Amino acid sequence: MDITSVFFAIVTIVAVVSALLVVTCKNPINSALSLVLTFFCLATYYVMLDAPFMAAIQIIVYAGAIMVLIVFTIMLLNIRVDANKKHTHQIVLGSVIGIVMALLAGMFIIRGTLSAPTGPITPEVITQFGHTELIGAVMFTEFLLPFEVTSILLLAAMVGAVILAKKKLS
């Protein structure tokens, strides 16, 4: 085994454990911090795939901005944990769904085949132009309308959150 495989295995173990902590932590802040660690592991995968721009975006957007919004929402809602309640039916249902999903994922991995990438973007084109320029060109030409619609939806969500928070404080 080379050093890259060992590093990949370590990052994978950390990602899986932190993802499990996101679901199993009783304190929502601890769950959010575990989600940040999972996002950092995903950014590490992007770096290993030679996509540094996507890794930076993963950290800036998800581990930074989105997690700040989630933590502020948790604090704004003042979520309290009731440790005395036991919901065994939810635990059983979640476990069954998790086992079925794991079995399906394993089946797809075992029975699946790899296919060659198709389309105009080849490794030579990426080397010539760079990841960032290709992403920007596609995002602001082919996907301009969805990009703008997403920005309007995010703006509406922020305005709604401010209005709801202002009503609660009054």
Q: Summarize the amount of helix as a percent range.
A: over 70%
**Assembly classification:** single chain
Rg over CA atoms, rounded to whole Å, is 21 Å
Structural class designation: mainly alpha
Q: Could you tell me the number of beta strands?
A: 0
CATH superfamily of the largest domain: NADH-ubiquinone/plastoquinone oxidoreductase chain 6, subunit NuoJ
| H and E string | HHHHHHH
Work out the count of structural domains. 2
Largest sheet, strands/sense/barrel: none
Unreliable parts: none
Bin the strand percentage: under 5%
Indicate the mean pLDDT.
84
CATH domain topology of the largest domain: Four Helix Bundle (Hemerythrin (Met), subunit A)
Shape: globular
N- to C-terminal distance: 62 Å
Helix tally equals 7
CATH architecture of the largest domain: Up-down Bundle
